[in-house]
Amino acid sequence: MRLELETDRFYLSRHYSEAVEAAGGVPVHISLIPRPDYILAAMADLDGVLLPGSDSDIDPARYGAEPHPNLGSVHPIKDETDLLVLDEIEKRGLPLFAICFGLQALNVARGGTLIQDISSQFVGAIKHQQGAPRERPSHAVELRNPSLLSRPAGKERALVNSHHHQAIERVGRDLTATAWTSDGLIEAVEDSRAERFALGVQWHPELGWKDDRLSQALFDSFIAACRKTPRDAGTSANELESASVA
Hints:
By secondary structure, the protein is an alpha+beta fold. 30% of the residues lie in helices and 18% in strands. It starts with a strand and ends with a helix.
């Protein structure tokens, strides 16, 4: 989920859940409680994880950088919870679909780094914060072929929306870039290990998914990967009991 500082509440846009449900999944929310025992219990019966966007930035200290003057708001409990979830995903080999902030969290969790502010740190960048209407495709991305993206797209170029001021700088371990904008910024990554399903996109396929075939295909691919999760991939009762008394 996300954190709204003004009202001190957890929340998440309806579009993520609706897109997951339409693809055949059952959406379950994970609260931003950065406690390993809670994350262990919350993820015990999950078949996969969708890591959504956020209106915050990841603390640059987590990838060894000093804060840029244009760094946005940092929500420590968002960072900590997402990184705990990513650690459990890695331990269990669960399918992962990471969107925008989720992509950036995945990259940082794998030891990668981020461009903290595209407009001031990346010369020649196109506009990556399009504003409203949020679902409108505003720029093209070139897709690596073959990849988890090019297969459902059926082509090597797609139009996507754009709502981010940060981007991947150095790609993390066991990840490979699979989409780029015309300015050269990375727009998607996937796990380089053949047996793992981990796909991260910088745009927001949950917006306008009802009318966008590529967005629908990405959610379909994620849910299809979740259906293949072995029933013993979750946490055992003994592990949960141990966690609850730790």
